[in-house]
Amino acid sequence: MSPDLRTPVSAEGRRLLELLRPYLPVLKEEAAANDRAAALPAHLFARMRKDGVMGATVPGDHGGIGVTRMHDVAVALHELAQADAGVALALHMQFSRGLTMTYEARHGAPNARRLASDILRQMAAGEAVVCGAVKDTRQVTALTRGDDGVYRLTGRKTLVSMAPIATHFVISAQLHEPGQPVRLAAPVVPRHTPGLTVEDNWDGMGMRSSGSVDILFDACPVPEENVLPRGLLDEPSDAALAGQTVSSITMLGIYVGLAEAARDLAVAATRKRGEPQSGVRTLLAEIDARLYALRCAVTHALAEADRLSDDLSGDPDERGRGMMTPFQYAKFLVNKHAVGIVDDCVTVVGGAAYTGKHPLSKLYRDVRAGGFMHPYNHADAVDYLSAQALR
After folding, report:
1. Dihedral sign, Cα of residue 45, residue 48, residue 50, residue 52
2. Beta strand 168-171 pairing with 183-190
3. What DSSP string runs through 237-256?
4. Helix-then-strand count for the chain, H and E
5. Alpha helices in 108-201, H assignment, sequence order
6. Is this prediction's pTM over 0.90?
């Protein structure tokens, strides 16, 4: 049987789903209140740190569950999203960091391997909650090496999900060193670092339980051993697309999950009313057809990402494009059709869905967040995909 977004492909993926399912009733019960308050349910994440969920994507030899398949992570997020997509988005942060840190621990430079292994063990023990921070606001986040040899990080990152409870941040930054070209780097910055401020400014339209706040870095000192090196700023390499894919592709499960949750609400409302009008029947048929197409696209993209993530034998640039391009095809479709599906479900249900207390109103706001997630937003995706077509 072909894999789908309801079925893990590994024993480790099945174990993760078993651990998550007891959380679903509580998430559903608290979702509306957390949405109104824009509150990350920290008490649930505290439980997840104790029962092993936060170490799901940490290798077994580092103490984690050992989920390696991106497909299985997407399945878990898909199920969580139908209870509370904001929590799924926050948990994605930890899962994706486990996957990328595992690569660093196995294939990085010696310093990177030591750092990644240390972080992974802390994640497995429930001691480390790790966020990635990519988006700049107002200024480029820069890591500068001073005359004293100390690196200092300055800038601001926005929409950092799960940040209110994070213990570590992996930052996308520009590295400036005397006499050297500007490079990209990913410093790992503990929360207690002087000059680091986690702001309390989250008031998003949707995904309100994700805790997506801003982080300020004011000349934060960063030891050299905490800096993961990347490529030159002015010479981007397609090989880096592989890591970007691993960091983000599993989020597609969240937005398909949102569309499926909306579909189920629309079907339930239609059944309750009795024999539907032909227009409603047409919408329901179109909704299910689009959902089928999204599931097919996403599972194929995940399969390609999983296949190529283990294969380091070929050209690194080809590998990067081979992972990113199916991801962007699927994300382009999901960003468009998941939103359209939820919108059609509002039409099927009618005016009741246009009230703040109706669960469809939350789905309607949450599903639009997919278009802002990198890589890529709509404009950047058009540039990337058209470049592949014209290559």
Report:
1. negative
2. antiparallel
3. -TTHHHHHHHHHGGGHHHHH
4. 11, 9
5. 110-124
6. yes
Contacts (Cβ under 8 Å, ≥6 apart) of 123? 54, 55, 58, 64, 94, 97, 98, 101, 129, 130
End-to-end CA distance of the chain: 35
Residues in CB range of 386: below 8 A, 6 or more apart: none
Q: What is the C-alpha to C-alpha distance for residues 237 and 244, in angstroms, rounded to an integer?
A: 12
Whole-angstrom distance, CA of residue 248 vs CA of residue 375: 7
Residues 242-284 have pLDDT tens digits of 999 999 999 999 999 999 999 999 999 999 998 889 999 999 9
Per residue in 279-333, pLDDT (tens digit) is 999 999 999 999 999 999 999 999 999 999 989 999 999 999 999 999 999 999 9
Neighbours of 38 (CB within 10 A): 17
Q: Which two tokens stand for residue 72?
A: 């299985």
